[in-house]
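Comment thread on ticket #2218

A.B. wrote:
> Attaching the input chain for the structure job we discussed in standup.
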Amino acid sequence: DSSDREIASGVLTEMGMEHLSNRDYTRISGGEGQLVLIMRALAQEAPVLIMDEPSSHLDFKNEMLLLEMIIKIIKDGSRSVVLTTHSPYIAFFLENRRIPVRAGLLEDGRLTEVGPPSDVLNTENIARVFGVNTAMISHCADEDENEHLKSIIPINSIKDEIK
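C.D. wrote:
> Ran it. Output below, let me know if you need it in another format.
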């Protein structure tokens, strides 16, 4: 129906993905296909978008496009986003862009930590839950040193220390 086409076209335009509008789904890359599936969910206009590891199998560029898409959705204010990931840096990526985000850690099937990424995703919690030693970094994003971008870098798996 024409209203469905208008909604789909609007989502493509809003997300800057018009170049995919006439492409056969079976002939686009896996990353583009994943973005198309997310846009299909957006076209359904649900108030909450639930994503299970949306960045898995994406190359670096498509992962950035996905994260920018999530930021647009949240800043638009009409939807909430709940996502799961095995990549803790995604929470910092969103937090660094002043997106209101809460991080949670699942440990043995239980939610053990919940709060801002800066509080929850520390080196101790990451070591305990993921079994990975990490380093937290903070990069000054402006000359006046008013804005710091935070991230987490994996160093090694904890099992490597046992050898």
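A.B. wrote:
> Thanks. Noting for the ticket: DSSP finds seven helices and six strands in the chain.
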